[in-house]
Amino acid sequence: MTETIRALIDRLCENHALSVEEYAQLIDGRDGEAARLLAARADAVRREVYGNRVFIRGLIEISNICKNDCLYCGIRRSNRSCVRYRLEKDDILTCCEEGYALGFRTFVMQGGEDAFFTDEVMTDIVRAIKARYPDCAVTLSLGERGDESYARLREAGADRYLLRHETASPAHYARLHPAEMSFANRMRCLRELKALGYQVGCGFMVGSPHQTTRELAADLKFIEEFAPQMVGIGPFIPHAATPFAGHPAGTVELTCYLLSVIRLIHPNALLPATTALGSIDPKGREKGILAGANVVMPNLSPAAVRKKYELYNNKLSDGDESAQCVAHLRQSMAAIGYEIVTARGDYPSN
Ligand code: SAH
Q1: pLDDT, tens digit, for every residue of 199-231?
Q2: Is residue 77 classed exposed, middle or buried when 0-12, 13-18 and 19+ CB atoms within 10 A define those classes?
Q3: Which ligand 1 atom sits nearest the alpha carbon of residue 144?
Q4: Whose CA is nearest to atom 18 of ligand 1?
Q5: At 237, which CATH number?
Q6: Is residue 350 in a domain?
Q7: Is residue 347 part of a domain?
Q8: Is 110 in the pocket of ligand 1 (CB under 6 A)?
Q9: What pLDDT is stored for residue 349 in this prediction?
Q10: What is the residue range of 207's domain?
Q11: Please, are residues 205 and 236 in contact by the beta-carbon 8 Å criterion?
């Protein structure tokens, strides 16, 4: 590690901010030693805020029907080989019941942009979950909706919303999405969600097609300035039935490095070690936690539909990825010195 990199890491720890050029330098100048130093610093600040506690979220993939056509995504509308499904209210409540018994106190409903889930349908589901499980947090990840819709969902009791910004560069955004989708609308959604009082998660794929260091540095700057409560990052993994089939996957190494940097930018952030990270490396989740992540999101979807929510090929859907294996997950986290807890795991207010 050069002295320049060491100095950048020191400054990042002190100021929780760098310039875009400095973020780029930190990424391009990385080596194993820099990664170890960043991870050690990230672990130390995370322990100050959260101790060795790791929060779990029960992920319910409510629909793989999507009106959008994101070029990277396996459930894009043009993928005719995708077998479509949707869960209805009773299916979702059954998932919650099972999850609650397993110790989950956050339910994340994620899905494609499926017109079935109107505000009426969705607010009814959110209200039903909050009525049955008043001690649980409800997180939504349903893509882009109108301001009014986000407001109604919030009013119905939704606590958090995950909407990855995907890339902070408008030009890069345009290369990842069809012409009818816009960077400006994505940003409008994120700003509105924050204004409505949701705990908001943004994020991006590491190694997405056409991504360079400049884009990653811009992503870090955006995260620094937007100051979300949650940040989801995971490696891009190609899906054979998408235009990006031939592109290489992102790496565990860079994903973990960036997790450490994000932890140092926002010491309080809720950072998941994502399914994508676990899917490209059997130890991916542990590596993510050791780099500074403090959340894991096991899958609570009914076993029959799990394989159909195929955002990318070889996505983990059973084994430790399933909520039913939380006991084993607890052991693997304990083995690296972390404790899975049954708690809502809100962003600490200060
Ligand atoms: N429709 C919702 C949920 C999208 S799926 C929304 O728009 O927010 C959740 C995330 O999976 C996406 O935001 C994207 O960053 C990620 N994803 C999609 N395809 C992927 C791929 N091929 N590799 C890795 N991650 C992918």
Answers
A1: 999 999 999 999 999 999 999 999 999 999 999
A2: middle
A3: 7
A4: 73
A5: 3.20.20.70
A6: no
A7: no
A8: yes
A9: 78
A10: 3-341
A11: yes
**Any idea of the CA torsion for 139, 294, 298, 220, to the nearest 10 degrees?**
70
The arrangement of strands across the sheet holding 339-341 comes to: 295-296, 53-56, 339-341
Average pLDDT of span 162-184: 98
pTM score: 0.97
Positive/negative CA dihedral, 277, 279, 280, 281: positive
Is ligand 1 within 6 A of the CB of residue 278?
Answer: no
Give per-residue pLDDT as tens, 130-150.
999 999 999 999 999 999 999
- Asked, for residue 150, whether it belongs to a domain, the answer is yes
CA 283 to ligand 1 centroid distance, Å? 21
- The alpha carbon of 44 and the centre of ligand 1 are apart by a number of angstroms equal to 30
236 lines ligand 1 (CB under 6 A): yes
Q: How many domains does the chain have?
A: 1
Residue written as tokens 């960043």? 38
What is the distance in A from the centroid of ligand 1 to the CA of 162? 11
Written as one letter, the residue type at 41 is R
141 lines ligand 1 (CB under 6 A): yes
Closest CA to 241 of 63, 85, 75, 66: 75
Does any domain span residue 349? no
